[in-house]
Design brief:
The chain is an alpha/beta fold and 490 residues long. Helices cover 47% and strands 13% of the residues. It has 23 helices and 13 strands. α18 packs across α19 and α20 crosses α21. The longest helix is centred in the C-terminal third of the chain and has 20 residues.
């Protein structure tokens, strides 16, 4: 079935790229229904990627690879590719695929450079992509429910209610995604056990965790999962039985296009090196071994797959963002940058509250208690609106926001100095990206802060430079994983 797909694999990548780029950014999926032929597979290797300055990574939104928790991007794949991008000195850009089928389509259409998702290495998939060195070994297991009163039963009685050998799966209905490695395994298992399994297909946009939840809820009786994913889900749903193995060990890896040998070699070299360090195993244990952390995360209303919330202050943010005309998720990203949503946070300079307002500024803004979330956000957005008025000459709305954020961080005077420097060197003082931001960085150097254009002297320019970049990078994650409109909270 997968082999038949290869013969017609991918008709024209232009449609896929256009349909992806034209989608709403708040939608975490892309419809890449067209297939492209081998002759039209995108060609872009490491040298071209480095020229662009960006590593574009394709993954899937689920509870282990990539998600938000309390306003912070997290995930096994996310943390690793972030480290990889830093190693390559590239900006990281995440693209979210609808399902596993779309991973391969998007990669070969050139939407991304690397699939960073836990893919089982199979012979069929090796015809579509080149796999990296494997991350870890796992095996596939049957996921089923124990009887409702299992806690009161001895183990031998529990075993009577469950399937304990693959041969017992003959005639049973097992639900999996069509083009998953689980489906392939079930087809091969039928030959091995000499009997038919009733393989029922589940929509491709359902993650493995979603299908496991269907087992927990009694919607279906059986599914298949990699053991490490099943095990972490069992910690939150102890009614699950995952003891029946149905495969030998399998390699789990990432993938690149077949015409990206430089990128493949670089990633493999990096993987071999990183797996010698504690960092790799700390990250693996964090997402696949730390059961307490997983339970706490899955229960939280601020886990992005639950209720689409960023923080407990979403309603306050939405009520105040109107005076700015910004996306509420952008303002939330700034608040995270300032305080990690901790209302009692205080800086070394005396700033306090969610938006880290200085006491004197708070007084001018009519904020009586900077630790009060409502007052603090009201005051912070009022201050942002005041700062924004100083950049009326900046025509581009996004650039104007960046100037405003920089002024919020380091003060209007230092941003004005950077604008004057930018103009003095013949560049555009009304463009932040690659213009004013560069000269703000230079204001930490005596050669520049002593120039006649500079009135406010030295500033640690790297702080506002990173401040703006990090807010916008986090905002990109928020746009992908948090809908623009979410239910108001009190």
């Amino acid at each position: 079935m997968f082999r038949r797909k290869i013969t017609r694999y991918l008709l024209l990548c232009t449609f896929i790229i256009c349909s992806y780029n034209c989608q709403e950014e708040a939608n975490p999926a892309t419809e890449t229904s067209a297939l492209i032929s081998e002759n039209t597979i995108a060609s872009k290797d490491l040298s071209e990627i480095k020229k662009d300055g960006k590593l574009t990574v394709i993954t899937i939104y689920n509870s282990t690879s990539y998600f938000l928790y309390r306003g912070k991007p997290m995930g096994f794949e996310y943390e690793l590719v972030k480290k990889l991008a830093d190693h390559l000195e590239l900006e990281l850009d995440i693209k979210v695929a609808k399902d596993i089928d779309h991973l391969f389509d998007m990669l070969n259409a050139g939407v991304g450079d690397l699939i960073a998702f836990g893919l089982s290495v199979t012979e069929d998939r090796k015809k579509l992509v080149n796999f990296t060195e494997y991350h870890y070994l796992t095996h596939q297991v049957l996921v089923q429910r124990r009887p409702e009163n299992w806690r009161k039963l001895p183990m031998y009685k529990i075993k009577k209610h469950t399937l304990n050998d693959p041969i017992e799966m003959i005639g049973k209905t097992v639900h999996v995604r069509k083009n998953s490695s689980y489906f392939e395994r079930l087809e091969n298992l039928e030959d091995e056990i000499g009997g038919q399994i009733d393989i029922q297909l589940v929509s491709g946009d359902k993650t493995t965790e979603d299908i496991i939840k269907m087992v927990v809820d009694g919607e279906i009786d059986y599914t298949i999962s990699d053991y490490n994913i099943a095990a972490i889900n069992q910690t939150y749903n102890p009614i699950l039985d995952i003891d029946t193995e149905i495969s030998f060990s399998q390699r789990i890896a990432w993938a690149v296009r077949k015409n990206s040998p430089e990128l493949l070699a670089e990633i493999n070299s990096w993987l071999k090196n990183i797996k010698k360090k504690d960092f790799y195993y700390v990250v693996y244990n964090k997402y696949f071994k730390n059961k307490k952390s997983y339970r706490r995360r899955i229960k939280s209303e601020f886990y992005s797959k639950n209720q689409g919330k960023i923080s407990q202050y979403d309603a306050i943010v939405k009520n105040n963002v109107g005076r700015l005309g910004w996306d509420w998720r952008l303002l939330s990203s700034q608040i995270f940058q300032e305080s990690r949503f901790q209302p009692n946070e205080n800086s070394w300079a005396g700033a306090g509250g969610l938006m880290q307002i200085m006491p004197a500024t708070a007084k001018d803004l009519g904020v009586n208690d900077i630790t009060n979330p409502s007052e603090n956000i009201r005051g912070g957005t009022k201050y942002l609106a005041q700062l924004r008025e100083n950049f009326s000459n900046v025509e581009d709305s996004i650039q104007r926001i960046k100037f405003t954020l920089a002024a919020y961080n380091c003060g209007l005077g230092h941003v004005r100095d950077a604008q004057r420097l930018t103009k003095a060197f013949g560049e555009d003082p009304n463009v932040w990206d690659d213009n004013v931001e560069d000269y703000l960085l230079k204001l930490s150097s005596r050669e520049f802060f002593n120039r006649p254009e500079v009135k406010y002297g030295f500033v640690r320019g790297r702080e506002p430079y990173l401040y703006v970049k990090e807010i916008f990078l986090r905002y990109e994650h928020y746009k992908k994983l948090i809908p623009f409109e979410t239910p108001e909270t009190e």
